[in-house]
Automatic annotation (TrEMBL):
<keyword id="KW-0521">NADP</keyword>
<feature type="region of interest" description="Disordered">
    <location>
        <begin position="1"/>
        <end position="33"/>
    </location>
</feature>
<comment type="similarity">
    <text>Belongs to the cytochrome P450 family.</text>
</comment>
<keyword id="KW-0045">Antibiotic biosynthesis</keyword>
<dbReference type="InterPro" id="IPR036396">
    <property type="entry name" value="Cyt_P450_sf"/>
</dbReference>
<dbReference type="InterPro" id="IPR002397">
    <property type="entry name" value="Cyt_P450_B"/>
</dbReference>
<dbReference type="GO" id="GO:0020037">
    <property type="term" value="F:heme binding"/>
</dbReference>
<dbReference type="GO" id="GO:0016705">
    <property type="term" value="F:oxidoreductase activity, acting on paired donors, with incorporation or reduction of molecular oxygen"/>
</dbReference>
<keyword id="KW-0479">Metal-binding</keyword>
<keyword id="KW-0408">Iron</keyword>
<dbReference type="GO" id="GO:0005506">
    <property type="term" value="F:iron ion binding"/>
</dbReference>
<keyword id="KW-0560">Oxidoreductase</keyword>
<dbReference type="GO" id="GO:0017000">
    <property type="term" value="P:antibiotic biosynthetic process"/>
</dbReference>
<dbReference type="InterPro" id="IPR017972">
    <property type="entry name" value="Cyt_P450_CS"/>
</dbReference>
<dbReference type="GO" id="GO:0004497">
    <property type="term" value="F:monooxygenase activity"/>
</dbReference>
<keyword id="KW-0349">Heme</keyword>
<dbReference type="Pfam" id="PF00067">
    <property type="entry name" value="p450"/>
</dbReference>
Amino acid sequence: MTVADPEARTRLRHPFHVDADGVNRPPGPDKHPNYGRFAATGSGVVPVVRQVNGESVPALLICRYADVREVLRRQDVFSRSAARAADPVDVTGTMLGMDGAEHARVRGTVKDLFTRPAVAGLRDRIEAEAAAQLATLRGRDGRADLLRDFAIPFTLHVVCDLLGLPQQDRAQFRRWGDMFLADSDMTRDEATRAAEEMGGYLWGQIERRRGCPAGDLLTRIAETAADQPMDVQIKLPISLVVGGWETAASSIATFLFVLRTRPYQGYASGWEYLLDHPGKLDSAITELERLHSTANADDMPRRVLADVELPSGARLTAGDVVIPSHDAANRDPRVFPDPERADFDRDPNPHLSFGYGPHYCVGAHLGALEVRTAIGLLLRELPGLRLAVPADEVRWKAGHAILGPEELPIEW
């Protein structure tokens, strides 16, 4: 089949929770019902429009699982670098904005440090950091903010330890990161300023390691990426440190919220189910990754470089901007039976929340281990943990690339 001329059809505003002011305001952890509907019915290719730097940018949202995987896999036809102007987050100079040999070269600087076996070797360090943050959490006398007092410092310290960033500078990185990941026009200037400030700081750290290696990730970048442009050397650690803590911390908070507020299999909550079935933790987290991914506005856009037919039969034209939607693909009933139902026994569960192909999230194994470590520890050590406020009073981040609560008051 052929997709009709996009300009001749009514376009939906994207992301689907964008308000009249152009700010994406998700009301909670659940994805918009459009995702399941578009994955299951119609062509699976939906005309949308998004605001980028004050301009309306038309695009096609790709919703079927096989089609999304094809777009993510084929850099020869679907280009990230050619679509940067259609992206509300400025990824110039980062792996996220590159294709082909350039992307492989920059990714190759660090990828062996984030393989499954390499991350498995970090388990003891990660568990020790989680235990240290749990001790701090317990010092809050039975009531705390899970993000401020546990999830953010835990994930921030893990990635900063890998990079070799000084303890005293880490709080500043959180402030920079919050601005860098803003995806609304109102905060684009703040994002630019944050990137410039982080860049200046990191360049100094990298330069210092050229003459005095420290055995950390910044030393690896200083030694193996010295032939790369300054912009690339700086933004590689920016993408690792910002993406490395924000996504994992938000997942910890979001998944705990869902586990504590949703019934499961005759239990009052998924949390209580896992207390009785601790062996289901890994598959439960995998299912939560499928249903409640941290991305707040689908995958990054690609530009079509040549006329192409997708596996579904839909045809795209060179020059089209496409947005592959892993949230829709994760609800494709052709792959996931009864896709909106949480099933901690779902097997197989080949969700696309970490991407697919060349741009598969380089830190996926690290983030997955952090989330499982954190929630497993909380289940064992604080089984009575619960929300300290009604679920509908939890506020969710607005105008941000990462889905998650602003704070998560808890008690035990």
